[in-house]
Design a protein that fits this description.
By secondary structure, the chain is α/β, with parallel strands linked by helices. The protein contains seven helices and seven strands. The chain has a single domain, classed as Rossmann fold, CATH 3.40.50. 30% of the residues lie in helices and 22% in strands. It has a seven-stranded mixed β-sheet. The protein is globular and about 50 Å long.
């Protein structure tokens, strides 16, 4: 089994954790970040050694406790993400990030979230969300996991975001990001192999990474 794992990692290891690897590239000269809807296993874990100040925001206390134990953030606020302007000054964080959050909000609230993120950030805003509406219900006993909206490349680009395709081609994944091809190990690897093809063609990707430079 160890030999099989080594061979598998040789061929597919470079494709794993694509979003985390992109965050590493995008966070040079970032010294502080605000991580909205951080959950218990935020991709901020990939850049925690690069960014000195890492503040997580979430309303689900069990997730905050798990994240604390993992050392992903060094401060937390248990507040509504739509009220961050009441707690943080404009331009108070180099980066404001929301990974798999905006789709859990109604559309109008999602646009409000973008306004607030762009207000609190001084250098950059990063969003990760499924490409279009993706059905999802309660997960891990957390009602906040329900999906309420879908987002498109055009919506982000109209606000000045550069959009990239993440997590493979759209047809390779479904609810909870699980692969559509079974068994799962095969399906994940098929998804990995399509990542490069959709990175600069986000309309065909499973997820969107939208990046806005704040001027």
């Amino acid at each position: 089994m160890n030999i099989i794992r080594k061979i598998d990692n040789l061929f597919f290891g470079k494709y794993k954790d694509q979003y985390g690897k992109e965050l590493v590239k995008l966070t040079n000269n970032i010294n502080s970040l605000l991580d909205l809807g951080c959950g218990n296993n935020s991709p901020v874990k990939f850049i925690k050694d690069k960014v000195k100040t890492r503040v997580g925001v979430d309303l689900f206390e069990p997730s905050i406790q798990k994240s604390l134990k993992a050392g992903i953030h060094n401060d937390f606020k248990m507040i509504n993400v739509l009220e961050i302007d009441q707690y943080f000054e404009p331009n108070s964080f180099d980066l404001v990030i929301a990974s798999d959050l905006i789709e859990h909000l109604e559309k109008n609230d999602g646009f409000k979230l973008l306004d607030l993120m762009e207000k609190v950030a001084s250098k950059k805003v990063i969003i990760l969300t499924p490409n279009g509406f993706l059905k999802q219900g309660v997960y891990d006993d957390n009602d906040f996991q329900i999906h309420k909206s879908g987002w498109t490349t055009e919506e982000f680009e109209s606000r000045g975001y550069k959009v990239y395709g993440i997590m493979g081609a759209k047809w390779t994944r479904g609810e909870y990001s699980h692969p559509t091809v079974k068994p799962n190990p095969l399906g994940f690897r098929i998804s990995f192999l399509t990542q490069n093809a959709v990175f600069n063609n986000p309309k065909n990707a499973f997820a969107l990474m939208a990046v806005k430079e704040i001027k």
